[in-house]
Amino acid sequence: MSSFRIFDIAGSAMSAQSARLNTVASNLANADNVSGDPNTVYKERLPVFKAAVEQGYPDSAGVQVSGIVESGKPAEKRYEPGHPLADADGYVYAPGINVVEEMVNMISASRSYQSSVDVMNTAKDLATRTLTLGR
Description:
Blueprint: H1 5-29, E1 45-52, E2 62-70, E3 76-79, E4 91-94, H2 99-132
Antiparallel strand pairs: 1-2, 3-4
InterPro entries: Flag_bb_rod_N, Flg_bb/hook_C_dom, FlgC
Pfam families: Flg_bb_rod, Flg_bbr_C
Family: Belongs to the flagella basal body rod proteins family.
């Protein structure tokens, strides 16, 4: 296996964590949005990851985002009869997003991204030092 595959693996991990951070940001931005219909309220979005194994390299792996799915959590029903979007019974519907869970997910994704950056920087430093050995 080529020693440069580490850059592909770390890069794929960074790309996956970037997608995770983007979905968390979208979820947090829409956590307080409400709708008068439970079917039109924002649904939490989650990235789906899968292992990416390259042909010819059975021991190598990476990660890729196979898609973004909507959560099956039900909308939160709130009684707010004075709200302009309230239905005939006075209810509005909010997404079932737990802001604390999303913040924890964001911190985890950020740390995973930083770990991949550290792996890439270490691999670059090792490659540079190896090249200077012949001087």
